[in-house]
């Protein structure tokens, strides 16, 4: 008789081991495909710069090799981590303000149909205005420095949070609401035990979308008279004609944006998927 039949526990663990191995194999395959895609992009970048540099020596400074070589100097001489910290701080402040200003109206819009009908045209109108269009007004109203940057980032990030929150409220199962009302739950209990779990996944989706928008708006917003941040560093490299450093900063911006989105995705998988399953 086989060892599996002698050990009943093995019958239970064997399928789990097989599924775990299959999951690891799938993750390794996806990782390999992702790395291959990035390598293809870098290769196309290198080939393109090599072809253009035959006619212009300046083009060679925009290649991946030059950017990689200048990265250590960017860290030591240009204080890259200081600029990264300033940019991440502004992203954090803008995101917090967007959540504070976006979740309550989104909840009310999703909860009351008449309010949604009344406000939807205005919200869609404001949402379609590029945040960068407010740059002159922000500078004239708030001056130079961090305040106009915070305003632009908050304005850019608030709309996906409002829309996602409203959608989450509208998709809550009415039977849960009726159950809470039949049990004479207070407004605070209804909010905490029914609405918050019901909209958590949608709010996290809105936050992830907002992070992507924030990262795109951040670089031009940091060109509004601040003396730190990745946007400022882009301008500084341009003014010094340090094109390899400029391309290195572009790579850093892409890498940090990728990491931020990955972190937001992990948070959603950890909390949002659990809320949806409940």
From TrEMBL:
The keyword Aminoacyl-tRNA synthetase does not apply. This is NitT/TauT family transport system permease protein. Residues 84-264 form the ABC transmembrane type-1 domain. Its main location: membrane. It holds the Pfam family BPD_transp_1. The keyword Cell membrane applies. It is found in: Cell membrane. Belongs to the binding-protein-dependent transport system permease family. InterPro entries: MetI-like (IPR000515), MetI-like_sf (IPR035906). GO terms for cellular component: plasma membrane. Coiled coil: none annotated. GO terms for biological process: cellular response to sulfur starvation; transmembrane transport. Keywords: Cell membrane, Membrane, Transmembrane, Transmembrane helix, Transport. It comes from Paraburkholderia bannensis. It comes from the Bacteria. The chain crosses the membrane at residues 31-52, 91-110, 122-143, 149-169, 190-221, 241-260. The lineage of its organism: Bacteria, Pseudomonadati, Pseudomonadota, Betaproteobacteria, Burkholderiales. It is a multi-pass membrane protein.
């Amino acid at each position: 008789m086989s060892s599996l039949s002698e050990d009943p526990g093995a019958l239970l663990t064997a399928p789990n081991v097989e599924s775990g191995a299959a999951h690891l194999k799938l993750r390794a395959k996806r990782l390999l495909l992702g790395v291959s895609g990035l390598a293809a992009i870098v290769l196309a970048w290198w080939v393109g710069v090599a072809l253009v540099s035959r006619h212009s020596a300046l083009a060679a400074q925009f290649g991946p090799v030059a950017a990689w070589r200048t990265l250590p100097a960017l860290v030591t001489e240009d204080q890259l981590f200081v600029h990264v910290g300033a940019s991440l701080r502004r992203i954090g402040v803008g995101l917090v303000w967007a959540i504070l200003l976006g979740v309550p109206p989104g909840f009310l819009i999703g909860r009351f149909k008449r309010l949604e009908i009344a406000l939807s045209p205005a919200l869609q109108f404001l949402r379609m205005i590029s945040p960068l269009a407010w740059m002159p007004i922000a500078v004239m109203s708030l001056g130079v420095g961090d305040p106009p940057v915070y305003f632009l980032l908050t304005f850019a990030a608030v709309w996906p949070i409002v829309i996602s929150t409203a959608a989450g409220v509208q998709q809550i199962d009415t039977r849960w609401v009726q159950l809470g009302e039949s049990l004479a739950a207070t407004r605070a209990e209804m909010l905490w035990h029914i609405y918050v779990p019901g909209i958590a996944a949608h709010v996290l989706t809105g936050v992830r979308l907002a992070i992507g928008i924030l990262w795109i708006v951040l670089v031009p917003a940091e060109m509004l008279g601040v003396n730190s941040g990745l946007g400022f560093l882009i301008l500084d490299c341009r003014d010094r004609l340090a094109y390899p450093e400029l391309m290195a900063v572009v790579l850093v911006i892409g890498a940090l944006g990728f990491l931020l989105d990955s972190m937001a995705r992990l948070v959603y998988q950890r909390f949002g998927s659990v809320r949806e399953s409940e």
